[in-house]
Amino acid sequence: MIDVSIVVLTFNNLRYTQRLVESVQAKAGDIPYEFVFVDSGSTDGTLDSLAALRNAKVIDASDEMFVFNRNLNRGIMASEGHTIICANNDVEVISDHFLASIVKTLWENPIVGVLGVELGEPRQDDRKLVLLGGYTEGCFYAMRRKVWEELGGLSEHYTGYGCEEADLSVRLLKKGYRTGFLQGLFCHHVGSATFRLGYAPPEACEKNALVFQQLHGYDLNFVEGCDFWINLHGYLECVFGFEWQKQITKLSLGCNSDMSYEYVRIAPLPAPGVDLTWNLNEGVPYPDCTVDEVWENDVLTNAPKPFRMMNEIYRVLKPNGTLHSISPCIDGCEIAPEAIDGCLWSDSVEAERRERLGIQCRFQIEHTETIHVDKIPCSITKYRAIK
To answer: Which of 14, 178, 219, 311 is deepest in the core (most CB within 10 A)?
Structure first.
């Protein structure tokens, strides 16, 4: 059974493709995988070399005009793995056991729609998921097959090459997914090898940027004299900011299994119903002012730095966003009093005390009541963010 399918587009550049294949063979580990190559008419011995691989399929796409995502879709349709990796042929994998890390991260974090890697020279191999507010680079990324199917495949509106990864990321964001990369998992990317072969002249990239505007409703105004990619990256920062603001985002922090599907469930350990495995002591993994509602269940009471946690929740909430905080009411429990004193977070706390305690958030307390959770009396307080 194939677990991972690595889809690669080729057109000559055999030496790069061989280096990619050799690096995967050396670094893959024990996860069953296959290669699916989609070739656009190579004449340098690439086809003969690929035919000699035992775990590879080769698709001849020389009969069609090259469209980056269309060729990737053809490869994915011919693949068998439940996890898909789309890789440029001028990438070299550097980190050991990279397949196991990718599969584990994707399947423990269902909210992650696409997962990239770090590019460049390896540093410390301390692998962890990092979520992005924008898009992941397109030279090497992974996604679950069911996500690809949910999207209806990769967009084929773009000719040549350019804007595909941005389009994918925006479409995922609109469906409630996040983009991210695995910090500590490294690949080396030669870069622009495809451009040098004439696949994608600069004018094709600019046409694709116009297609992106038409599909997603944003105007792109280039700064005269600036590099195309500098303009595009700056523009995309605005695009993703606008998209974040348009989403209705609700978070459930902690192990609250009773929340509805509308809530993104974040917990420190993987479990059924958890959408994102995340150490909340490191912060809330969302951009500023992008969340409408937060439920936290006993997270503040157990946080080593409750003030920092509350500041983080405040940071991600939109103006007038709401927080519902649940804390146990148990005599003698070893909980820092400031963690359960809801008045400390209110807007009425004097400035001197706010500064001394490091409180940056400003909330209005709207409602407090006592409920029972598993027969334990708990206080539930509703706050509204004042911004």
So the answer is: 178
Task: Give residue 21's identity as a one-letter amino acid code.
Answer: V
**What are the tokens at 100?**
């196991």
In a domain, 46, yes or no: yes
> Global pTM?
0.83
Residue 231 included in any domain: no
In a domain, 230, yes or no: no
Strand (E) or helix (H) holding 6: strand 4-10
What was the pLDDT predicted at 194? 53
Neighbours of 352 (CB within 10 A): 8
Query: Does residue 214 lie within any of the structural domains?
Result: no
What is the bridge-based pairing of β-strands 263-267 and 291-297? unpaired
How many residues can be counted in the chain? Answer: 387
| CA angle, residues 95, 15, 86, in degrees to nearest 5 | 50
374 and 289 assigned to the same domain: yes
Residue 257: is its pLDDT beyond 80?
Answer: no
What single-letter DSSP state applies at residue 67?
B
- The CATH number given to whatever domain includes residue 15 is 3.90.550.10
Note whether 2 and 68 are within 8 A (CB): no
Q: Please state the rounded mean pLDDT for residues 333-353.
A: 56
Residues 6 or more apart in contact with residue 111 via CB below 8 angstroms = 176, 177, 178, 264, 275, 276
The predicted-structure confidence for 327-339, as pLDDT tens digits, reads as follows 777 554 444 444 4
- N- to C-terminal Cα distance for the chain? 53
| Structure tokens that stand for 315 in this block | 């940071």
